[in-house]
Amino acid sequence: MIRLPRLSRKQRVVRNLLVGLAACGIIWYGFDFAPPTAGLALRWKAQTYLLEETPELLYTSPAGKNGSRELVGRCGERWFYCRDYQTLLFHDLGNLTFTEPTEPVTCIIPPFGGEDVLYIAAQIPGAARAACSVRFQSTVSVAQNNTTSIIDLDETYSAQAEANPQGIYRFPLERKYEDALAPMRTAEWATFHAYSCIPEQNAGLDLICTVQVTFYSEDGRELMQDSQTFQAGTEST
Amino acid sequence: MEEKKTARQWCDEAVSYVRFRPDRSAIRRELTQHLMDSRFQLLDQGLDTETADARSVAAMGDPQTVGLALDRAHNPFLGWLWELSRLVCGILVFLALCCVLRSDWRFTVQNNLARLIEPASVSQEPELDPDYGVADGTYRLLGEVGCPAPVQAGDYTLTVTTAFYREETENGQRSLTLGLTAQPQHFWMEAPALFPILVAVDSNGTVYSNARAPWISVWPLESDAGAYQFCVDFISIPGEPEWIQLQSSLDDSWSLRLELPEEVTP
Fold it and tell me: Which of A50, A95, A117, A207 would be a feasible disulfide site paired with A194, CB 3.0-4.6 Å?
């Protein structure tokens, strides 16, 4: 049997550090060289889009679906949105979705697979909170129990959000129909799906989405109102 | 008169100078062993128990001097560093084992080893066959397209390795097919997300995108070691453009211009 030399404490510390480093290498390797911080993950992700600019992370949402978080920030002039699926220390980012800035308010709609939310980026001096209403108008054909019904869906979803220092507001949109078998729920699901397809302009459903946002000061005074309309397939203001 | 110390008292006093507490019990054991050895030696020489005890303790010297020397040898900084390194190392080795035991480990190893070990190369062209469908008359090759010089696109070098321009004989629809290699600067970089960003414009001002016709389609081919390979297709090229320029929809920092054959070979 091979007898290993007895190491001094200093040597053991060095040995443990080397073993730890090797283990770190194996772990990193096992995670396919995933980046250890969200900032670095974003930089590497932006590189895969052949971008030279370094993205600036401005907002990280609380953990949502599958424990993933939403990242919102700027990359050059554009706004970006992506999901961060974190395992241990490592970050695995989904696709980046870019939104061209519009003045004074930019609506950032998460793509398919994201949360039912709307992000609004706006630098309104003195704004402490904002109220938003999102109106969906669509016509959905729902096939259920061998019958097909045409549903004209016209629903408005309201939400409020506090201002974040970078001027990003997150409005969670709560779905209204719970009953899994109800045609309205299917129609609502299809409409939200179409909404999530707006950023990549690949929605098949006829959808008009009107966003109305009002910004308020700390004392409840109305500061500004803005309205934007999006259509599935083509975006219009 | 100084009270005579028992072996236990001597050990207690000596170890009390050692600041690194986790080592104290081991030091006490060793000192006690020394005292016992010395005591048994003296007993063997015929001394009585009490005298043997007293002499063995006296032979150990001043407990303070011994204790301070032991404290220097058992440096608390190094001691705690060692303890910490053991804990961290244990956790990391456990996590590394978990990684190794993951079901997709073999795939990851193969994938990453190829990227780490094999030299990066752009020499291997994608398996794009310009003669496909030509022999049976499905396609007609319209001519050779020169490959433009490689460009630096962000942290990737984009190289067009092959390009051919052809026409579908049945409907006269023209298409341009490119073999495109993206060579990352660092081994850990993922494949570039070309599909969502690639657009093109031709000399007639026609814009090609993945969202609407005329289409540009991108799909990955088997990656060469250290480089990612793609096939880029321009489908239903309208008119007879002189050139097509491939670029990013996100910025205009790079572009690849392909000069199309002026006169179509019959």
Answer: A207
How many residues are there in chain B? Answer: 266
CB A91 within 8 A of CB A41: yes
Can you give the pLDDT at residue A236? 36
The structure tokens listed for B253 are 């920092």
Residue of B nearest to A93 (CA): B190
Residue in chain B nearest A27 by alpha carbon? B96
**pLDDT for res B1:** 39
- Subunit contact A26:B85, Cβ cutoff 8 A: no
Task: Please classify residue A67 by burial: count the beta carbons closer than 10 Å to its beta carbon, then call 0-12 exposed, 13-18 middle and 19+ buried.
Answer: exposed
Q: Residue B71 — pLDDT band, cuts 50, 70, 90? A: very high
The count of other CB atoms within 10 Å of the CB of residue A17 is 14
- Condensed to tens digits (0 to 9), the pLDDT of residues A93-147 reads 888 999 999 888 999 998 887 788 999 999 889 899 999 999 999 888 888 777 8
Around Cβ B61, how many Cβ atoms within 10 Å? 12
Listed by number, the residues of chain B in 1-60 with a beta carbon closer than 8 Å to a beta carbon of chain A are: none
Give residue B264's pLDDT. Answer: 56
Chain A partners of B111 at a C-beta cutoff of 8 Å?
Answer: 32
Q: Which residues pair with B5 in a beta bridge?
A: none
Contact call for B108 and A48, based on CB within 8 A:
no
pLDDT in tens, A39-60: 888 988 998 999 888 899 999 9
**Domain edges within chain B:** 7-98, 139-259
Cβ neighbours of A117 (radius 10 Å): 19
Contact of A73 with A82, CB cutoff 8 Å:
no
Is B188 close to A33, i.e. CB distance below 8 A? Answer: yes
Alpha-carbon distance of B114 to B226, in angstroms, equals: 8
Give B253's DSSP letter: S
Poorest-pLDDT segment among A167-171, B65-69, B218-222: B218-222
Cβ separation B93–A202 shorter than 8 A: no
Measure Cα distances from A182 to A27, A144, A187, A208, B4 in Å.
Answer: 47, 9, 9, 22, 93
Residue A159 near residue A132 (C-beta atoms within 8 A): yes
DSSP conformation class of B116: H
Residue A153 pairs with which residues in a beta bridge? Answer: A138
Distance CA A111, CA A32 (A): 25
Distance CA B122, CA B178 (A): 14
Phi, psi of A222 (to 5 degrees): -75, 125
The angle subtended at Cα B71 by Cα B65 and Cα B76, nearest 5°, is: 165
Question: Which residue in chain A is spatially nearest to B156 when comparing CA positions?
Answer: A50
CATH class of segment(s) B139-259: mainly beta
> What's the CA gap between B257 and B178, in Å, rounded?
12
